[in-house]
Amino acid sequence: MNETIAQLEEKARNLRVAVVKALHKSQSGHTGGSLSAIDMVTVLYFHTMRHDSANPRWEGRDRFVLCKGHAAPAQYVALAEAGYFPREDLMMLRRLGSHLQGHPDSKVTPGVEVCTGSLGQGLSMANGMALGLRLDGKENRVYALLGDGELQEGQVWEAAMAASHYRLDNLCALIDCNGLQIDGEVARVMGVESVPDKFRAFGWHVLEIDGHDIGAIIAALSQAKVTKGQPTAIVARTVKGKGVSFFENKASYHGVPPSDEELPRALECLGCFEDCEKISH
Amino acid sequence: MSGMIATRDAYGEVLAELGTENEQIVVLDADLSGSTKTGVFGKKFPQRFFNMGIAEANMVGTAAGMAAVGKIPFLSTFAIFAAGRAWEQVRQSVAYPKANVKIVATHGGVTVGEDGGSHQSVEDIAIMRAIPNMTVMVPADGVETRAAIRAAAEYNGPVYIRLGRNKVPTVIPADHPFAIGKGIELVVGTDLTFVTTGLMTAQAVKAAELLLADGISARVVHLGTIKPLDQDILLKAARETRAIITAEEHSIVGGLGGAVAEFLSGACPVPVHRVGVRDRFGTSGKAEELLKYFGLMPDDLVDAARGALARS
Fold it and tell me: What percent of chain A has pLDDT over 90?
């Protein structure tokens, strides 16, 4: 198990490097929230979820919905790493004609299940998938990754109510609580706490973890899997911009990519000392 | 014309039939299943019927998720909520991914009646047809509703179908082959053309009879689909008759009249006169009273026709 955790930590570090490079290349996109979600995305794609990059539409696959769609780079680097498309494609992020759109688009990106990015809509879609799969008697699980700022959208609570009402135990929501949104601290813009109490009150099984602790993420997802009769919410406490010290806990890096000057320093923070010249242009 | 049936009743019947024929069909409603008639399906197939409560945004997203795992969801509520309340969910979760979701909105237009302006959707055709990937249908009667619902179930992609609350006369021949995007020339005429949709088609058929008594030959073209638009039938009418008069139980802004004017202004510029709700909200009253109040009676169409011919 310790070996698995170490491997996943290394994988997450590599994915952070890929996120930073892709965002630097595109000079557009959401750095902070992609980095806060990476550890959960890593565990989902490289440990917990059943999926097959050679057959993205494989019927037996678990479903992943990136409700906080602005963290698309986090999903794209995981999909590239898993072999859904070449890693070089990441350098085309947000470009005209690219299959890597600014926000996830199921029409063009292999491995993306639905279109997300308009906050608050993803959990409803995850509910629909869970209901449909259960109706067919299938064992597939559905994972939805939300942001804490996203919880300000009323539709999230309509969906939270419905998931509990329909006892969707094949659904697990992960809430990336990095505490920041574009305009500043979530608590100051529009407080959402207590997130665990709210989900409990809506009838969910709630787990609270450190969203950067790979072992804790694995354990929580395992617990979710064996929870019956209700959906599980994993409330993950995270750091926005995690892994790059000068991005960390700064709302100003919500939608700002690394500059030319910041790229080498960011990669250095991630323990990546390769020649930045060759990867930046 | 024979038989009177509300399009929502025809919907309830055909949906329950489709439930037997296709196990992938699931139905969602937002606490209005008695009014929208999805309850007929719900009673027959309780496992495939999902009441989502009074939460239309979540209902639309849930339907999109069901479509993403291979289901064919039909969702229903009143037009004001399906198209209005949940517009952005329809755009983002359904139309943008081209999800195979069928939005069947009942209680469209002013004939909702006594509930008043808050519940009378006079903008839904405009705002639904503005969305890329969306197909928009407004059947004239029960016969066409049955055909349109069946066509929607066969078609792979997002569909918006607007139905009404009240009984309407049957005007579409039972043997008419329905196709999405195809209009029908219901009355042959050479002087002018009424281009109509929904319950206004029956009104136009009556208006054509009144005009004929005065020696004016009015054609009636019914468009059961507003998007995609039947361009051929419109071009033919614009070339062969002297005036086009659109009629809809909807705002004159952006609906059928808007669609026809947009197309003809480029393809065959002719005067297009739009009959509809004149950029205002609805109000309480009986359905028939409201049709009179908003100028949607056969007499109003006759007046519009005479005016158009006088100016042509």
Answer: 93
Alpha carbons B100 and A160: distance in angstroms, whole number: 24
Quick check: is B56 catalytic?
Answer: yes
Q: Give the CATH number of the domain where residue A172 resides.
A: 3.40.50.970
pLDDT, residue A255, reads 87
> Which has more confidence, A255 or B190?
B190
Which residue in B13, B17, B21, B56 is the catalytic one? Answer: B56
State the CB neighbour count (10 A cutoff) for residue B88: 14
> What's at A177, amino acid-wise?
C
Decide if A155 contacts B89 (C-beta within 8 A): yes
For position A281, what pLDDT does the model report? 40
Please report residues of B whose CB lies closer than 8 A to that of A155: 55, 57-58, 61, 89
A155 touches chain B (CB under 8 A): yes
Domain spans in chain B, listed from the N-terminal domain onward: 4-169, 184-311
DSSP B184: E
pLDDT class of A155 with cuts at 50, 70, 90: very high
Residue A95 scores a pLDDT above 70? yes
Please indicate if any CB of chain B lies within 8 Å of the CB of A203: no
Strands A142-147 and A63-66, sheet pairing: parallel
What is the arithmetic mean of pLDDT over A233-245? 97
CATH number of B4-169: 3.40.50.970
- ipTM, 2 dp: 0.95
Q: Which CATH class is domain B184-311?
A: alpha beta
Nearest to A129 among B47, B59, B69 (CB): B69
Nearest-neighbour CA in chain A from B45: distance (Å): 12
B131-151: average pLDDT: 98
Indicate the number of domains in chain A. 1
pLDDT tens, residue by residue, B180-224: 999 999 999 999 999 999 999 999 999 999 999 999 999 999 999
Domain that holds residue A65: 2-280
| Matching fold, domains B4-169 and B184-311 | yes
Distance CA B128, CA B60 (A): 14
Burial B97-116 (b: 16+ CB within 10 A, else e): bbbbbbbbbbbbbbbbbeee
Tokens representing A106?
């199921």
